[in-house]
# Entry
Amino acid sequence: MFVDVDDTLVRSAGSKRIPIPSVIQHVRELHTQGAVLYCRSSGGAEYARSSAEEFGIAHCFTGFLPKPNVLIDDQTAAEWPRCISVHPSSCSGRSLDDYITEVSCVDYASTRHRIDILPLLYQAGPDPILRAC
Ligand SMILES: [Mg+2]
# Structure
């Protein structure tokens, strides 16, 4: 899971930075649930890291990345299988389990594919969720 910084974790008004508590809490909850999270920003990896540190959630992330400028890929990002985009205003209240269900339903409804994506989203830990879509 990739989490953006600007206008996702924080808003800027002039030189003032205003954290977005609902998304910061969401990151904490997903981490607790075992999600594999990366923080990325157009401002670069170090900006992503320092922002996560600023809000006390750096430990929730596996890594920090810049956003890409060029994608060399046979598919556009919109065509990537098992990939959903979630606006920060609608993430509150969702769980890792909810995302697994949504991602599983994007292209595949079978249990087999559901198991395939679990390692991508989970670090380990919780029992696999095998609910059918
Ligand atoms: Mg942004």
User: Anything to note?
Assistant: DSSP finds four helices and five strands in the chain. Residues 108-115, 124-133 have pLDDT under 50 and may be disordered. The chain has one domain: 2-121.
